[in-house]
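call fold(seq) -> tokens
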Amino acid sequence: MLQEALPSLKSGLEECLALLKPQEPGTTLALSTLRSETVKGFVTRVGTRIVKGDISVRLANLPPPRGQQSYPLRISSPLPLPQLSTLLILLNQALDIIDISTWTGDPRNGAFISGQLRLLSDTIDEAKAVMKGGEDIVGGKWWDDDFAGDET
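ret:
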């Protein structure tokens, strides 16, 4: 039964991985705030980076520059997304765990299978936590000068 479930899980993880592969022209996402125009614009993501963006921001306590209705933010050089870089690594690790579970070891060895499933579960849980965000995001903070943010 497990040997039948793993290929299905692998297929789903490969679909997620395909969404993170750098493919031109990328994915353009619209940005807006609910019921207001405080933030509006778009960003284009290629792989684990935002490569282009045009965003307008209105700040309640700060008037916009003279002659404009909002503050323009333009992204013209790649901006790494550490959460997606980390997610890419974790998805590849999960696929490796599935391959190891499928092609090596003894499928009748309960300790081996149990250990592999626990490792797979922990890796997927870590990937979910990375996507939720928070203080303990692996891969650094995007505002740190030391963050490399290299594609993997």
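The chain has a mean pLDDT of 84.
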